[in-house]
Write a structure and sequence with these properties.
By secondary structure, the chain is α/β, with parallel strands linked by helices. The chain has helices at about 5-15, 30-35, 45-55, 70-75, 85-95, 105-115, 150-155, 160-175, 190-195, 200-215, 225-235, 245-255, 285-295, 330-340, 350-365, 375-380, and strands spanning about 140, 145-150, 180, 220, 245, 270, 300, 345-350, 370-375. It has three domains: about 5-100, no CATH class; about 125-255, Rossmann fold; about 260-380, Rossmann fold (3-Layer(aba) Sandwich), CATH 3.40.50. The protein binds iron/sulfur cluster (SF4) (2 copies). One iron/sulfur cluster binds near residues 29, 31, 46 and 77.
Length: about 375
């Protein structure tokens, strides 16, 4: 009988978990040069890839949970190494063995909450549509033109519910025939998949796909770039595809059609932050900027890291559930960049970015210096 060494076992597990392309890496280190972590602490994706190729990965180490899947390294690698997929494959192995360091314990809590109430915040599924009380929002039924897929953080988080309400008001003002799923909506599952919880992800995806098909959903509007990515890419792995649009694209379309006319002035200097999953992962850089440019009185400024070179907020890839030391928070750097650019408002279009930036505002004592707004909140004020 053939003997399998521990090294071969790890290599086999990584291969099974989808991370076999580690062998393409020739250790040039370009990934580490652009990784945002190296601005606040030492971190090496190159080393993680190397360890995987030699079967030396230690799934107990915190480092495999550090990557925010921001995509900066993927865009730079001369060999096309799928660093994110390799990292996720190691997390899948760790999840399979139930090995979680303290910094990512919240992912375990989120997984449990997702199994019960289909959201990571541990809120009752029956209260998912509470944010819409008193707003012109109906439940999606067969024949409704557009499904507004709200997402977990916009549905439950007190700060982000304001952006969901802004979106609903804008859609109503533009005369869009839209509806929400309410209790029938489940988390898209993106962060769970990136933290190795493949079975939980697939369960959530099945619930959503069934809800979409049962109700005859044809077009889906999302506010979260993570939902956008998941419906377009991850659900395609499950052999289904839907017509999905991000709110930044949809607002611009409504403006082009003359259905949404920014009329009031918004006399503020605004810096736009490109969320990783909207920009680098999906190439949507211009639409949110153009929406902001069309707001009368608004002065759009750029930060030092922007577009393809945007700085991650730290929330992707399970980062939103990770304990990060204050001195290592990437969002703090971003707030400082907004301030350097002379911005009074830091605008973005992602729930994780908003949550992290709001947290950094408090940490840095910037409450009176920089406001954090979702682009929908700005548009809602001026139409
Ligand atoms: S950039 Fe690509 S080839 Fe270079 S070390 Fe990183 S993963 Fe390896
Ligand atoms: S995806 Fe982003 S956080 Fe992860 S290793 Fe690459 S550059 Fe670093």
């Amino acid at each position: 009988m053939e003997t399998v060494t521990p090294y071969e076992e790890i290599i086999g597990l990584v291969r099974e978990a989808g991370g076999e392309d580690y062998k393409l890496c020739y250790q040039c280190g370009k990934c580490d040069a652009v990784c945002p972590w190296n601005r606040v602490r030492a971190f090496s994706m190159r080393k993680i890839v190397r360890q995987a190729s030699l079967g030396l990965s230690e799934i107990e180490q915190e480092e495999i949970w550090r990557c925010t899947t921001c995509g900066a390294c993927v865009a730079q690698c001369p060999r096309g190494v799928p660093q994110i997929r390799i990292g996720v494959s190691l997390r899948r192995i760790a999840t399979q063995y139930g090995v979680f360091p303290d910094m990512i314990r919240a992912a375990g809590t989120a997984a449990a909450a997702l199994r019960i109430d289909r959201n990571p915040l541990g809120e009752p599924a029956g209260r998912r549509a509470d944010w819409a009380k008193g707003l012109p929002v109906k439940t999606f039924t067969e024949g409704t033109d557009l499904l507004f897929f709200v997402g977990c953080y916009y549905s439950y988080d007190p700060r982000l519910k304001k952006a969901a309400a802004a979106t609903a008001r804008i859609l109503a003002k533009a005369g869009v025939d839209f509806g929400i799923l309410g209790e029938a909506e489940s988390c898209c599952g993106e962060s769970m998949r990136k933290t190795g919880g493949e079975a939980v992800f697939r369960g959530l995806a099945r619930e959503n796909i069934k809800a979409f098909i049962d109700r005859g959903v044809r077009r889906i509007l999302v506010c979260s770039p993570h939902c956008y990515e998941t419906f377009r890419r991850d659900y395609a792995d499950l052999m289904v595809s839907f017509d999905v649009v991000h709110v930044s694209q949809y607002l611009l379309r409504l403006m082009d059609e003359g259905r949404l006319v920014p009329a009031k002035e918004y006399r503020r200097r605004v810096a736009y932050h490109d969320p990783c999953y909207l920009g680098r992962h999906n190439g949507i850089y211009e639409e949110p900027r153009e929406v902001l440019r069309r707001v009368p009185g608004l002065e759009l400024v750029e930060m030092s890291d922007r577009r393809q070179g945007s700085l991650c907020c730290g929330g992707g890839g399970g980062g939103i559930w990770t304990e990060t030391a204050k001195a290592e928070r990437l969002a703090n750097l971003r707030l400082a960049q907004a301030r350097e650019a002379g911005a009074q408002v830091l605008a973005t279009a992602c729930p994780y970015c908003i949550a992290n930036f709001e947290d950094s505002r408090l940490t840095l004592g910037y409450e009176e210096v920089v406001e954090v707004r979702d682009i929908t909140e700005i548009v809602d004020e001026v139409v």
